[in-house]
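Entry 14. Structure prediction run on the chain below.
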Amino acid sequence: MESKKLYRSVNNKMLGGVAAGLGEYLSIDPTIVRLGFVALALMGGPGLVVYLIMWLVVPPEPFDTTNTQL
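Output returned:
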């Protein structure tokens, strides 16, 4: 069984790829994750701070050279 790793998405990103990567990791729609970050930020929570920290800490997904299309 292959272990799952958290990466920032490079293909499905709007700002930093954090929400898309987290959505892929949790197997949920990235829009739900994005709305969660926005809701946390608007309610005075740590949504923006958590997003920025994850943007700095979570590595981008590695480039897959075995599955490229020309």
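The chain has a mean pLDDT of 88.
Filed with the rest of this week's runs.
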